[in-house]
Specification:
Its cofactor is FAD. Belongs to the GMC oxidoreductase family. Keywords: FAD, Flavoprotein, Glycoprotein, Oxidoreductase, Signal. FAD binds at residues 107, 584-585. This protein is α/β, with parallel strands linked by helices and 650 residues long. Helices cover 24% and strands 16% of the residues. The strands form 7 sheets. Strands 1, 2, 10, 11, 12, 13 and 24 form a 7-stranded mixed β-sheet that branches. Strands 8, 16, 17, 18, 19, 22 and 23 form a 7-stranded antiparallel β-sheet that branches. Helix 11 runs antiparallel to helix 14. The chain starts with 12 loop residues before the first strand and ends in a 5-residue tail after the last helix.
Length: 650
């Protein structure tokens, strides 16, 4: 135990079956975390069904273990499901890549290892939408449970101001969990100039007072999921190895793709539906339709992520009757909120060429075979570029970056008021928009800026299909763009509280058919307008010292993407639509809301109309938040474990 063979699962009975051990979303981080916590009770048997591979041979998988190789797994079929959206109406019908991790640990094994927490107000809004106990006080209490924080010795990076490392309140616990977080061992010079020494400070921003205690406004040096002495990536599976891998009551079956939840009754007959097990395929090929069953005594817990959890519910007969009828699935529990209210973070990058006399390291060195081998050797000693990470974060209100903020929000409020008057919104959405509008007036942290010492920008279509191109330009690509021998710096803008709402719905009763993913990008124009303002602000950042002092002064080449030919709002808009992408932080598709507000799960994460089906992943988040989602996936799992154990106090 816990990795088991098919014969130990098929037709066997378990107390808890968790669908998803890391396969589809950062949410799958939640699946393994929850399995670890539930298996602490030796009287409970726990089964995890994971569609991807185990990736146990981590010593042979540097794409996972080296922190500085983030993004390299994207579009690689060994690690990435590589979903795509449907053509986007407001983006010239372009389709966008939605990468999701494939294997134990899910996207936590292929993400950028970022550990950030939301501002207090974002989490308190969940409770205001009708979810008692889901507030920042409880969130904060559980935020230290999955992790152990180890401060990085400031002497390792003497050029970084010592206060930059003081992001965790030493008066509080340093955590108690198996997942290690710390600052990467090496902080690159250009990140120091951007964050702490300090372009943004020169623009009037402050250092965040308490970025891991709910006060995230400002700029700070963020933590990564990195082991403090091994300097390797930490993710959900390595955390499980530290505490649960040898428990005899925990079973994990990889290559097991859940098809549907088996049940004994339906709410239409007046009784709540009761799950009896899970149907799944095992290492199935395209032509292999054989299915297997695992039975359950207590609960089936969906942790397949914001993209697949709705599909599994729909194939189980739980969802919108109109969707189920189209795919030929019997309606067992009608729930109109399934697959609705989808929210996403969006990002784009602008890349700038650095001066020829800038001698410090950037990721651009890794485009050179000799340099790459050199830094692989350095990494074995905890040094070099592979021992770095994404560490610069800045969160701010729209008002901080443009005097037009009030005008933009007023235009959106007028639209929302008119739409409410015309009854255009489904139940519950008006209340969400009211909270967002209130929050905007109170300076919500709608804008985020991150940076990378290399190239992470588009348009990727000019290179080769797939967003991977944008990443690989900074690593191993042989493409002559960016220019050989040159170094670059990318400032990335992220929009945190988009008004547009999307959907994720099944298009077939075949579980191997991907659902239709339609984020409705820019359906609300304010989402685009905020992006445009962030774009303009990035150019202001590039004109501010000390970052300005290391950027090339050649007007023809200093801006790689989008370049000097993009100036007007129309040109900016066209470039953005070709170059932005999702941050793969999808939430909301099975929202935790009152049932009459299009909710799918109650505050105990139980699916309405069922006795024993819960959802524990980012799909339950009812309103998007200003942070990268990895930490919140872990925290939701920790809260869910106590809810299931009956010890959660709201």
């Amino acid at each position: 135990m816990p990795l088991v063979s098919l014969d130990l699962v098929a037709n066997q009975t378990f107390d808890y079956i968790i669908i998803g051990g890391g396969s589809i979303n950062i949410s799958q981080t939640a699946g393994l975390t929850l399995a670890s916590r539930l298996s602490e009770n030796p009287a409970w048997s726990v089964l995890v069904l994971e569609a991807g591979n185990s990736h146990l041979d981590l010593g042979d998988r540097p794409l996972i273990t080296r922190p500085g190789q983030f993004g390299m797994q994207i579009n690689n079929p060994e690690y990435d499901w590589a979903f795509t959206t449907v053509p986007q109406k407001f983006c010239n019908n372009k389709e966008y890549l939605w990468s999701r991790g494939k294997g134990l640990g899910g996207t936590s094994a292929m993400n950028f290892s970022i550990w950030t927490l939301p501002p207090k107000e974002d989490i308190d809004n969940w409770e205001k939408l009708g979810n008692p106990g889901w507030n920042h006080k409880n969130y904060q209490k559980y935020s230290t449970r999955p992790v152990t924080y180890t401060p990085l010795d400031p002497s390792i990076n003497p050029s970084v101001p010592a206060e930059a490392f003081r992001v965790w309140n030493d008066a509080n616990t340093r955590g108690e969990g198996p997942l290690h977080i710390t600052h990467p061992r090496r902080i690159l010079d250009v990140d120091i100039k951007m964050n702490q020494a300090s372009t943004l400070l020169n623009m009037g921003f402050k250092r965040s007072r308490a970025p891991y205690e709910g006060d995230t406004e400002g700029t700070y040096l963020g933590l990564n999921t990195v082991h403090p002495t091994l300097h390797s990536r930490e993710f959900a599976f390595t955390a499980m190895q530290a505490c649960a891998l040898q428990r005899p009551n925990l079973s994990i079956l990889t290559g097991a793709e859940a098809s549907r939840i088996l049940s004994s009754s339906s709410s239409e007959s007046g009784n709540d539906l009761e799950a009896t097990g899970v149907e799944f395929s095992y290492n199935a090929t395209t032509n292999d339709h054989e299915s297997y069953h695992a039975h359950v005594r207590r609960e089936v817990i969906l942790s397949a992520g914001s993209l697949k959890s709705p599909q599994i519910l729909e194939l189980s007969g739980i969802g919108r009757p109109d969707v189920l009828s189209k795919i030929g699935v019997e309606v067992k529990v009608p729930l109109d909120g399934v697959g609705e209210n989808v929210q996403e973070h969006l990002f784009f990058g602008c890349s700038f060429e650095l001066r020829d006399d800038y001698s410090k390291d950037t990721y651009d060195l890794l485009r050179n075979d000799i340099e790459r081998e050199k830094h692989i050797k350095l990494y074995s000693e905890g040094q070099g570029i592979y021992a770095t990470g994404m560490v610069h974060f800045a969160f701010m209100s729209l008002k901080k970056i443009t005097p037009d903020a009030a005008m933009l929000y007023a235009a959106e409020e007028a639209r929302v008021r008119q739409d409410i008057k015309e009854k255009k919104y489904p139940p519950g959405l008006a209340e969400q928009y009211e909270l967002q509008l209130q929050y905007n007036r109170a300076d919500a942290l709608d804008c985020e800026f991150v940076s990378l010492s290399g190239v992470l920008s588009g348009p990727s279509e000019l290179l080769y299909p797939g967003f991977t191109a944008s990443y690989r330009l900074s690593f191993t690509s042989k493409i002559d763009l960016p220019r050989p021998g040159k170094k670059y710096y990318t400032v990335i803008a992220i929009s945190n509280h988009n008004f547009s709402r999307g959907t994720v719905h099944s298009t077939s009763n075949d579980p191997r058919e991907f659902p239709a993913m339609d984020p409705h990008y820019f359906e609300h124009d304010i989402d685009l307008q905020i992006f445009i303002e962030q774009f303009k602000y990035i150019r202001e950042i590039a004109e501010t010292a000390p970052l300005k002092d290391i950027i090339s002064d050649d007007p023809a080449t200093r801006e790689l993407n989008p370049g000097p030919g993009v100036q007007t709002d129309e040109q900016i808009t066209n470039w953005l639509k070709q170059s932005f992408d999702t941050a793969w932080h999808t939430t909301g598709s099975l929202s935790m809301l009152p049932k009459d507000k299009n909710g799918v799960v109650d505050p105990k994460l139980k699916v309405y109309g069922t006795k024993n089906i819960r959802v524990v992943d980012l799909s339950v988040v009812p309103l998007q938040f200003a942070a990268h989602t990895q930490a919140t996936a872990y925290i939701i799992a920790e809260m869910a474990a106590d809810i299931i154990k009956g010890v959660f106090v709201s």
